[in-house]
Amino acid sequence: MGDLTEVLGLFIEAFVRAPPLFHVVVIAVFAGLVGSFINVCIWRIPRGQSIVHPRSRCTSCGHILGVPDLFPILSYLCLAGKCRHCGAPVSPRYVIVEAINVSLWLLSYWAFGASREALVAGVILSTVLANVGIVLMKREMRSRSRQGFTFISILLTALVLAVSVPALVDVMRTGFVGATKNQEYIKAYALAVERIEELRNITAQNLRSDRKVYIETELLTDNIFVDEFFGEFSRMREDSKYFDEKFTDVYTDHNKLPDSVMERFKRAYKRYYGLEYELYPLGYEVFRRITRVEEIKSKEKPERVLRKAKVTVEINSQVTKGRKIDLEALLTDR
């Protein structure tokens, strides 16, 4: 063990002393490989598959991919975005995720130089990228299929690049706490965007606030808290202000509703969104999300159906307490 530590120390010392161009090349190759692994996680984890076995293969023909097919970014460009075995197109998401991850690691190197801080920043940002990608892929699987450049690819590009530089600045300024906060802000923003996109699939005429979806229902039996007579659930049913302060539709295995309430919640969710509700990964219990919908009157076109949807995501973790992210969207029937 001592010999291994010594060899590793010598390697790190040699790397630090190497010229900057060598640093950039090594970091880019390593970050590309990490990005390739992130792609495996984004594809397999939402499908309940192992990220270790079996080996990577074409999702169209099932052929096991070799090294020429898996070299980050270059393989995609050399093969013109197609499988070399069956000619099926390969999603641009793969090269986008790899390129984003390379950019994030190079930004870390640019901010910290060849140092331990750069390594920590790269690992943190890659973890955030993987986390956001997994959540968005999970939602993408549940929505109707799209052609061409997918929503997840576009959102991953805009989301991660938009927050990467502020994340690095916060890492430099406040270290681990600042980096953790940025991860939580990214997750909160992704949750808000996710809900706005789901609302776009509902006609403006049928858009409703969470309270009307789950509490103020046409049938009393559809009220998810109908059998709750004591405690906060009963109060949420009776007090609309308290409902707005406490309700969330983000649940994990650690913060699920009681079984009977959870079943009614899932049925109400499916009736409204047309999707099966799936629990979020562990760690998301620190988020609270609620949706409010307001009708907008148009004097010029009174017959036009126009709704303003406001999604609020609140963070209540050990390092981020009571911070909120609000997203609003004006939705209308075409």
Write the topology of this structure.
Blueprint: H1 2-17, H2 20-44, H3 67-70, H4 74-78, H5 93-112, H6 116-142, H7 151-199, H8 210-214, H9 231-238, H10 240-246, H11 259-273, E1 287-295, E2 306-316, E3 321-332
Antiparallel strand pairs: 1-2, 2-3
Helix pairs in contact: 2-5, 2-6, 5-6, 5-7, 6-7, 9-10
Notes on the structure:
Helix 6 (116-142) crosses helix 7. The chain folds into two domains: 2-199, no CATH class; 204-332, no CATH class. The radius of gyration is 23 Å and the shape is elongated. The N and C termini lie far apart (67 Å). The protein has a three-stranded antiparallel sheet, with helices on one face. The protein has eleven helices and three strands. Mean pLDDT is 77; it is low at 145-149. The chain is mainly alpha-helical. The chain has helices at 2-17, 20-44, 67-70, 74-78, 93-112, 116-142, 151-199, 210-214, 231-238, 240-246, 259-273, and strands spanning 287-295, 306-316, 321-332. A hairpin with a 4-residue loop joins strand 2 (306-316) and strand 3. 29% of the residues are buried.
